[in-house]
Please model this.
Amino acid sequence: METKLLRVEDPKQNPQAIETAAAILRRGGLVAIPTETVYGLGASAFDEQAVVNIYKAKGRPSDNPLIVHIASMETLPTLAREIPSGAYALAEAFWPGPLTMILKKQSSVPSVTTGGLDTVAVRFPSHPVANAIIRESGLPIAAPSANLSGAPSPTNARRCVEDLTGRVDAIVDGGPCQVGLESTVISLAGEIPRLLRPGFVTLEQLCDVLGDVAVDSAVLSKLEEGQSAASPGMKYKHYAPKARVILLDGDDDAFVDYVNRQQGDDIWALAFGHETAALKKPYMVMGDTDQQQAQRLFECLRALDDKGAKVIYARCPHKTGVGMAVYNRIIRASAFTIQKL
Ligand code: TXA
Ligand code: MG
Model:
């Protein structure tokens, strides 16, 4: 299939591209769209064949449900039922924005969209291009991250082009993503609110709105053999570059010392930034703040593959605030290989 590339800097300046993308979605096609978190691979959430085509294009297991994106609060009750007051409180605080809520689903939402679950994941993104396309299409849009299954999520259009050319109808280039990691996922479908995937909206912020929030055991550690995943996506190997990633948990000096002592070819460091002066191995910088690390992590992992890195020694992020999200992704990229220094 031929993949159209549509560039949209500002939806008001490029209404034609927005209309083209929306028309493709309305006729059941696949379009990669920019959001504030990562690029998403969108299709009509109510079109079963289109949703099946998303799974095919990504090579994604069919039991891993998709997030449905909306551009108006009025769409929410068409997707979810028994919406608790906490959901409206979270929407008020964080929507539009990088938060996904799991709610009981309306029977009209196809079971392929929700991976066979009785719940649906809903997000109202804040990116103006995503917003304009969803609104123009008049549809709720199912969209996983726009990468091939298992690879780091794309945070710019170039990475979508690499993964999806020939597999989707169009890719909309809206520039680099501001957040850089996928949305926070919270389940409101059970007895107590439960954080399933940390993101830019932090656990601390969720607790401010809801009071207590449980943290799913898959967030900060590996699921044990036989343990079932509240969020099916958390059980798969994820976000991984081709290189082997080893997470080094220690301070600046211990990190530099450990990396400098390693022998062999194509060894790279994935550093915070301020510690690089003493590194004797090639390195890439994630950034010193949690926010910078979030924004750059996935692009760094992909860029290190381009450089031919075989082994990546990565600094271990903080486990609180936005750092919790960076930590959650990087432990998966490393297949839980963490070395205490
Ligand atoms: O920021 C984001 O969330 C991006 C952009 C495109 O919006 N999307 C994204 O989608 O990251 P995806 O498919 O890569 O991740 C969705 C995650 C998966 O871990 C999936 O298992 C979980 O959400 N999920 C979706 N529906 C669920 C449900 N009904 N119950 C539990 N987990 C669900
Ligand atoms: Mg994904």
